[in-house]
Design a protein that fits this description.
GO terms for molecular function: kinase activity. It catalyses: ATP + protein L-histidine = ADP + protein N-phospho-L-histidine. Helices cover about 60% and strands about 10% of the residues. With about 400 residues, it is α+β, with helices and mostly antiparallel strands. It has 3 domains: about 5-140, Globin-like; about 165-235, Helix Hairpins, CATH 1.10.287; about 240-390, Histidine kinase-like ATPase, C-terminal domain (Heat Shock Protein 90, 2-Layer Sandwich), CATH 3.30.565.10. A 5-stranded mixed beta sheet has the order 2-4-5-7-6, covered by helices on one side. A two-stranded antiparallel sheet has the order 1-3. Helix 2 packs antiparallel against helix 6. The chain starts with a helix and ends in a 7-residue tail after the last strand. Bound molecules: adenosine-5'-diphosphate. Adenosine-5'-diphosphate binds near residues 343, 344, 358 and 359.
């Protein structure tokens, strides 16, 4: 029994029903912007290729389906389809084909029916895989372009940050929305990729998306950090002190930062035994201080460990030290590290690191706002200790 004849004979009707189903499916949103003709566009080729394969023996190669599906995938990428939408589109095709073949299938022997079902499934699965492949290529090209745009914007923003601080705050706000969507979109793309290992692409392609993400995140951080600084300088940064459990807060920061340390095989050692149980402080700002200091400690340390210690200094004060065994800071640089945009690059492997030169500038401003002080003690090649001393009771601002 040759089911391909039915497919060919009824191909117009199948196509119409398929396009209609794709068009009607609420979960395929990409079609909202497209005309009927645009949705139908490369579908006839895919269907014809499927029929051709079905009409030949089981061993026939799937090249025609492969080619048609690659072309279809490219088109769908251009049309802005999401991978899940493409998969849905093929699921609908499977459904439509079976509903058209039902009558013929009922007349065939069990063996013939099984063979036909298996063949149709194999061919459609192959079509989905190929379609995904070319979709991925299309998307990757788009991401590559985005990446080079981001790099330019990054350079431009850095120049502006240095040259003109007044218009910066406005500009940064303007840039934040597109950036957030770029990052969200790339993130989504990567997640879908990981979840569907059968469509996993080559390592270098994944790498290029990771690069876009890294650049996007760095740019976003630069903007956010710059906004923080300008907010502080404009006197607009306010503290919201509440009763805060110190060991709990420290542990939550450590949990957050731990994967960074693990990635560099650095151990994180926490000693809170002599820390005050509770203080009155702004917990979010304190978290920000600790996160910045700990991520610096990890960023500038290649071997050894990072220690965090906390203790009560007096009846009015308590302290936290973050001690690393990293590259250290020269005496000259120690005088400048709290200035915005200062970066001391002495070690080649750190040159490509993801710093902005704003982390410590923010930390020192926050510490000042909290009526505290920050000290650094460091030796080149040996490591650094940053100590923050804070009041046990933050003064509530009027
Ligand atoms: P960045 O984003 O460059 O890390 P920061 O303001 O946080 O910006 O730090 C400014 C500079 O201080 C860094 O570029 C680095 O040279 C130096 N620095 C900060 N923390 C450390 C550390 N723990 N060890 C060595 N150098 C550090």
């Amino acid at each position: 029994m040759d089911f391909s004849q039915t497919l060919i004979a009824k191909s117009d009707a199948i196509l119409d029903q398929w396009v209609e189903a794709v068009y009607q499916d609420q979960q395929i949103e990409a079609t909202n912007e497209l005309t009927f003709k645009a949705v139908r566009d490369s579908l006839p080729r895919v269907l014809k290729a499927l029929a051709t394969v079905l009409s030949e023996s089981e061993t026939s190669d799937l090249q025609t389906v492969v080619d048609a599906s690659l072309e279809h995938g490219t088109l769908r990428a251009e049309q802005g389809f999401e991978p899940a939408e493409i998969a849905r589109e093929y699921r609908l095709l499977r459904f439509v084909i079976f509903s058209f073949l039902e009558e013929d299938l009922l007349q065939g022997s069990a063996q013939e029916v099984l063979r036909a079902v298996r063949l149709i499934d194999t061919v459609i699965d192959e079509a989905i895989a190929r379609c995904f492949n070319s979709y991925t290529q299309g998307r990757l090209q788009e991401l590559e372009q985005l990446q080079s745009q981001l790099r330019l914007t990054n350079q431009e923003l850095t120049r502006l940050v240095r040259a003109n601080k007044d218009t910066l705050s406005h500009l940064a706000h303007e840039l934040k929305t597109p950036l957030t969507s770029i990052i969200g979109y790339s993130d989504l793309f990567l997640r879908q990729h990981r979840e569907q290992p059968e469509f996993k692409d080559t390592y270098s392609n994944i790498e290029s998306i990771e690069r876009v993400l890294r650049n996007g995140r760095l740019l976003l951080r630069l903007i956010n950090d710059t906004l923080e600084i300008s907010r502080y300088d404009a006197g607009a940064m306010k503290l919201h002190p509440t009763l805060t459990n110190v060991p709990e807060l420290i542990n939550s920061v450590i949990e957050m930062i731990e994967p960074l340390a693990r990635a560099k095989e650095l151990s994180l050692v926490v000693d809170c035994d002599r820390a005050p149980e509770q203080v009155t402080t702004d917990p979010l700002r304190l978290q920000q201080i600790l996160t910045n200091l700990l991520s610096n400690a990890i960023r500038y340390t290649e071997f050894g460990s990072i220690h965090l210690q906390s203790w009560t200094v007096s009846q009015q004060q308590w302290a936290i030290s973050i001690i690393d065994s990293g590259i250290g800071i020269s005496l000259d640089a120690q005088a400048q590290i709290f200035n915005a945009y200062f970066r001391e690059i002495t070690v080649p492997q750190v040159q490509s690191s993801d710093g902005t030169g704003l982390g410590l500038a923010i930390v020192s401003r926050l510490v000042q706002l909290m009526d505290g002080e920050i000290k650094v003690d460091s030796q080149l090649g040996k490591g650094s200790t940053f100590t923050v001393i804070l009041p046990l009771e933050a003064i509530v601002q009027g």
